[in-house]
Write a structure and sequence with these properties.
Strand 6 and strand 7 (212-217) form a beta hairpin. It is globular and about 95 Å long. The protein is 46% helix and 11% strand. The protein starts with a helix and ends in a 34-residue tail after the last helix. Strands 2-4-5-7-6 form a five-stranded mixed beta sheet. The chain has two domains: 1-48; 57-255, 2-Layer Sandwich (Muramoyl-pentapeptide Carboxypeptidase, domain 2), CATH 3.30.1380. With 257 residues, the protein is α+β, with helices and mostly antiparallel strands.
Length: 257
């Protein structure tokens, strides 16, 4: 009987030892694997995120310089926003076949300056012609009050005051959804924006954490959008046969005022 009891205890002891080792391995191996996987994902993100329009302080300064040139106010609150809408200094962005909104965007903030809306119409029509899909507007005009709230939970948001304040506060800027676009679609939008940036008509940034094209539009866009300055149709850009590289939106830039 004693021998049988000893065998039982021995079996229990061995089982506990084996389980303990297995448990120890279970604790160590996943941590090691997770660390390696995390490094791979981090490297993957660094390789993938190589934007044409990298955000910078200089870009924010240029956006604010344009706001000051146009002598536009930074909209402080809802009362000022409503006044600008009533005077039609801010106009509604209209959703349709070529453009949609992020449903989370407050309808009261689906407004922008007239020339910014012109830019959106041109871009969305050209994009739809190429891909038969819509662009999505995630953000447009904001007030200082809204920007303050945004900065409480988004450390990457631009400040609400100062020389690098968010250009959304003047209504010249829109954020266009980049997440969900294919590489070809992202490249197409970048190529669309490049000649406009070279002409000083837009100041774009590709935000990393929100995955949007942040585009501030110069007031000069309205002047250069006259029908006589467009190449072909007013939809925006004409594409080559392969549709890979959009041509310039405007005619010979040297002839423009």
């Amino acid at each position: 009987m004693k021998a049988k009891t000893k065998r039982i205890f021995l079996v229990i002891f061995l089982a506990a030892a084996v389980c303990g080792q297995a448990f120890g391995l279970h604790q160590v191996m996943p941590t090691h694997h997770v660390h390696r996987a995390s490094k791979r994902r981090s490297h993957f993100r660094r390789v993938l995120w190589n934007p044409v329009f990298r955000p910078s302080r200089d870009s924010l300064l240029r956006q604010n310089e344009e706001i000051d040139r146009l002598e536009l106010p930074r909209i402080q609150n809802e009362a000022e926003l409503e006044q600008l809408i009533a005077s039609q200094e801010l106009v509604p962005i209209v959703a349709g076949q070529t453009l949609r909104f992020d449903p989370r965007l407050d309808p009261d903030r689906r407004y922008c300056r007239p020339w910014t809306r012109d830019f959106l119409e041109d871009l969305s029509e050209a994009y739809y012609k190429q891909f038969h899909g819509q662009i999505q507007v995630n953000s447009a005009v904001r007030t200082v009050q809204v920007q303050k709230r945004l900065r409480r939970h988004n450390r990457n948001a631009a400040p609400e005051i100062g020389e690098t304040a968010s250009s959304h506060l003047a209504g010249i800027t829109v954020d266009i959804q980049r997440r969900g676009m294919t590489k070809q679609q992202v490249a197409w939008v970048e190529q669309y924006l490049m000649p406009l940036k070279d002409e000083g008509l837009v100041e774009p940034e590709e935000e990393r954490h929100q995955w949007v094209f942040h585009v501030a539009v110069s007031g000069r866009y309205a002047e250069l959008r006259e029908p006589k300055t467009l190449v072909g149709e007013q939809q925006g850009e004409l594409l080559d046969d392969e549709g890979a590289q959009p041509q310039s939106l405007f005619a010979d830039s040297e002839s423009q005022p």
